[in-house]
Design goal:
By secondary structure, this protein is an all-alpha fold. Helices cover about 60% and strands about 0% of the residues.
Length: about 140
């Protein structure tokens, strides 16, 4: 095995950790926005499976010292095409999760657009010409 294999293994390992972090975040924030987290969970799981599949394919087909027959190369190429398509779908799910998967706030949970009136000044009549210092007594 050569340096290129270890470099690929390191890169797929880093991406694997990234996808595990995505799975973890999806589970942690599931109650806050379940639609986006379901999309994130699915996309991270798909990407993690693609990374593991590509490492397995490289172990099986690329890093042997024996001569690879033509059928193995064709099978390897088709398998890499399929993993690329699965990865594209997973990236699309991530985009959908970012832009369309969040829950909208319900009106009763939304914050008011203007501040609420002060309750302590309700019993006093409004003053007409007194300058205000901004300090409450």
């Amino acid at each position: 095995m050569d340096l290129l294999f270890y470099t690929d293994l390191l890169i797929y390992g880093i991406f694997g950790l990234l996808h595990l972090a995505g799975l973890t975040f999806a589970l942690v924030y599931w109650r806050r926005c379940p639609k986006a987290c379901a999309l994130l969970f699915t996309a991270s799981l798909m990407n993690l499976l693609v990374s593991l599949t590509r490492v397995g394919l490289q172990l099986r087909f690329v890093n042997h010292d024996d001569i690879v027959v033509r059928e193995d190369i064709v099978w390897f190429t088709h398998a890499m095409y399929v993993t690329s398509i699965v990865q594209w779908i997973a990236h699309g799910l991530l985009l959908v999760a970012v832009f369309a998967g969040r829950n909208e706030m319900r009106p009763k949970e939304a914050r008011p657009s203007r501040p609420l009136p002060d309750d302590e000044n309700d019993d006093r009549p409004p003053s007409i010409a007194q300058p205000s210092t901004g300090i409450h007594e």
